[in-house]
Write a structure and sequence with these properties.
- There is one protein chain.
- It contains four helices and six strands; from the N terminus they run αββαβββααβ.
- Helix 1 crosses helix 2.
- It has 160 residues and is an alpha+beta fold.
- It has one domain: Beta Polymerase, domain 2 (2-Layer Sandwich).
- It has a six-stranded mixed beta sheet with strand order 3-4-5-2-1-6.
Length: 160
């Protein structure tokens, strides 16, 4: 063994295949009191604005303490994923005054995660979405498929 080497045991790590976002803690708070369903509708419409595909809304309140809702969507290229992410960010800032608490994946735009505390938006390239299969992983959660020709007002899970 090397002098001064730090050994990390697997048991020291808190690994859970279901963890797709940072844990919700007391210091993790949204910037505004806007209802989560409101910001989720804004996010869905922002995704549709950039022609995001295969949009799913998952109500994870009953199966997770991580967030209340996940939105999962696909873009056909890293450029489209980048445009979708920019649209979600700009629309939530403009219409709700909300910014992400945490963002990951903007180095390659294969899978971008935008954590708005009680809403997490995942935007994938199709290959990564199929591989990680979040919809299957969170299969116990109620979910709704968004009609790509409609808008967020048609999503039953997001109605007040």
């Amino acid at each position: 063994m090397y002098q001064g080497a730090c050994i990390l045991k697997i048991t020291d790590l808190k690994l859970d295949a279901r963890i797709a976002v940072p844990e919700r803690t007391k210091d993790k708070k949204r910037k505004t009191p806007a209802p989560v369903k409101t910001i989720a509708r804004i996010a869905v419409d922002a995704i549709l604005e950039k022609k995001g595909r295969n949009i799913e809304v998952l109500d994870v309140r009953g199966v997770s303490g991580i967030a209340d809702f996940f939105i999962v969507a696909s873009g056909d290229s890293d450029i489209q994923v980048k445009a979708i992410v920019a649209s979600v960010r700009a629309n939530l800032k403009e219409k709700a005054g909300e910014g992400p608490w945490h963002t990951e994946g903007t180095d390659h735009y294969n899978w971008v995660l935008m954590d708005y505390v009680d809403l997490v938006v995942h935007v994938f390239l199709p290959e990564q979405r199929e591989y990680y299969a979040l919809e299957r992983l969170w299969g116990d959660a109620p979910h709704a498929t968004v009609d790509e020709t409609g808008d967020a007002s048609n999503v039953a899970l997001l109605k007040d």
